[in-house]
Amino acid sequence: TPAGRPAPFAIPTDSLIGDAWVPSASGKRIKIADPATGAVLTSVADASVDEAMGAVDAAEAAAAAWAATAPRKRANILIACFHAMMAEQEWLAHLISLENGKALTDARGEVAYAAEFFRWYAEEAVRVNGELSVSPTGGNRILVQYQPIGIALLITPWNFPAAMATRKIAPALAAGCTVILKPAEETPLTALAVAEIMRRAGVPAGVVNVVNASDPGPVCSAILHDPRVRKLSFTGSTEVGRILLREAADQVISSSMELGGNAPFLVFDDADLDAAIEGAMVAKMRNAGEACTAANRFYVQRGIHDAFVERLSAAMGALTVGPGTEPGTQCGAMINRASIQKIERLVADAVSRGAEVKLGGQTLDRPGWFYPPSVIANVQPGSEILSTEVFGPVAAVIPFDEADEAVALANATEYGLAAYVYSEDLRRALQIAERIECGMVAVNRGLVSDAAAPFGGVKQSGLGREGSHHGLIEYCEAKYIAVSW
Ligand code: ADP
Fold first, then answer.
1. CA angle 293-298-299, nearest 5°?
2. Ligand 1 pocket, 260 CB below 6 A?
3. Per-residue pLDDT tens digits for 362-387
4. Catalytic center at which residues (predicted)?
5. Which of 76, 87, 120, 285 has the most other CB atoms within 10 Å of its CB?
């Protein structure tokens, strides 16, 4: 049980279908492990394809009434969700920390970030404005109205189990869509708790449904082949994104994809070093590096390089590593064994090609999945860590000489999600930002995520945007009505 005020309800572990929490008929359950110990925490219902189709039925039954609900009323329900979620911040943070492993401080931040999507989209729900224009011939009027796209399947990852769910649910509901959420099998409890909070805050039955599946492929495929489903929003790996785009192709389902990243972090000689270190700590160590926006490659100009490596190693080395739920922990556990193995492989590859380990570099010998904050410098071209997201607390540092070289290095990846630029010359920083092939650039800061901003990637980092007004339009179709005048 979390510290402070306990949860006002037992955390659900079944599927939410319409107005009921239903166990799976087969009795099959998915075990949920605590990454800090490896111990099994509990289990959740493993929904069958039939049960998932029941969720589509429930979403369909609620769809017309929800789309017809006055925008102000939908907004009021969403703002009630915001307040309800913030009221439960402490135990919800504890729950996130338990099933995901992240430090409580990160988890509290996630709850606030997640709840913010409810507030932002409560404010957007009443501002879905259309357009009226005169056709160039003058003979008719062009009327454009934004209508809800229809039932949406939302598939979320384990790294932000609350925020990735609300970032999709809130705009969908604001637009007038009903949804089926399929959380990651590693971290379903947070999503189930958020769904219960939403139910209690007044979200009508069937508007939000949640199913978990140990084998998500067949369940998601069945949903994406149901003609009533019109939208897919996915956050996860590029590899699974490609599979889902193929699945969505059969019914030509509108797809929003937030996929992998490989964020470069550029530091120029004229950067404010204190600020760059502070930003690097956020960009690298938020969520212990388990973020698609996490800085993966630090390109540092020669004149400031050695000082940067020394200062970053000191700052990262000062972090307290431990179970996320323990007060004082700053870097929690990685999600699972596979994650640790991937980090080990990428570090070993970089070292074998000549990189120097300045800090950490070895899995901790203790129960659970712990990798320490690590800095590897002089990472050589061709090292796999430069092309693959490490998704852990490892900073790879590479020196550069010229701005053009830094931009070329930053762009030498099939990904294009986030990038970071540090320079006190704002004109240069903005010019560099324009040239980096990515969806988001942070200038002299270590954080891009904001409910009010369009989050998303270019190249193989994804399609579409979440957050801001852009995120709402992803759940709408433009209806054009030609009117004779
Ligand atoms: P990660 O590598 O971060 O675990 P994944 O892309 O594997 O990310 O998983 C993200 C989400 O995609 C999870 O909810 C997972 O269950 C789901 N998923 C994985 N494979 C499939 C699939 N074949 N079809 C539908 N969803 C899938």
1. 130
2. no
3. 999 999 999 999 999 999 999 999 99
4. 258
5. 120
Q: Which atom of ligand 1 is nearest to the CA of 237?
A: 6
Predicted local confidence at residue 138, as pLDDT: 94
269 class by beta-carbon count within 10 Å (0-12 exposed, 13-18 middle, 19+ buried)? middle
Across the chain, mean pLDDT equals 97
pLDDT of the residue at 1 = 45
- From ligand 1's centre to the CA of 369, what distance in Å? 20
pLDDT at residue 192 is higher than 90: yes
pLDDT score, position 3: 54
Distance CA 144, CA 129 (A): 9
Q: How far is the CA of 258 from the centre of ligand 1 (A)?
A: 12
Supply the DSSP string of 196-209, one letter for each residue: HHHHHTTPPTTTEE
**Which residue, 198, 196, 184, 197, is CA-closest to 66?**
198
- The reply to whether ligand 1 has any atom less than 6 angstroms from the CB of 220 is yes
Task: Determine whether 258 is an active site residue.
Answer: yes
- The predicted pLDDT at position 5 comes to 72
CA dihedral 212, 214, 220, 221 (to 10 degrees): -160
**Ligand 1 near 185 CB (within 6 A):** yes
| Among 129, 151, 26, 13, CA closest to 71 | 129
243 lines ligand 1 (CB under 6 A): yes
Cα–Cα dist 169/371, whole Å: 33
Q: What is the pLDDT of residues 6-35, one digit of tens each?
A: 899 999 999 999 999 999 999 999 999 999
SS3 at position 23: coil
Q: How far is the CA of 215 from the centre of ligand 1 (A)?
A: 9
* Cα–Cα distance for residue pair 233/173, rounded to 1 Å: 13
Counting residues of the chain whose pLDDT is more than 90, the rounded percentage is: 99
Indicate which residue's Cα is closest to atom 18 of ligand 1: 216
Asked if the model's pLDDT at residue 397 lies above 70, the reply is yes
Residue 53: phi and psi, rounded to 5, are -70, -30
* Per annotation, catalytic residue among 99, 110, 196, 258: 258
Which token pair is 111? Answer: 């709850």
pLDDT digits (tens, 9 = 90+) for 291-327: 999 999 999 999 999 999 999 999 999 999 999 999 9
How many angstroms from the chain centroid is the CA of residue 250? 26
Q: What is the DSSP letter of 294?
A: S
Picking from 454, 457, 445, the residue whose alpha carbon sits closest to that of residue 413 is: 457
Helices (H) and strands (E) in the chain, counts: 14, 20
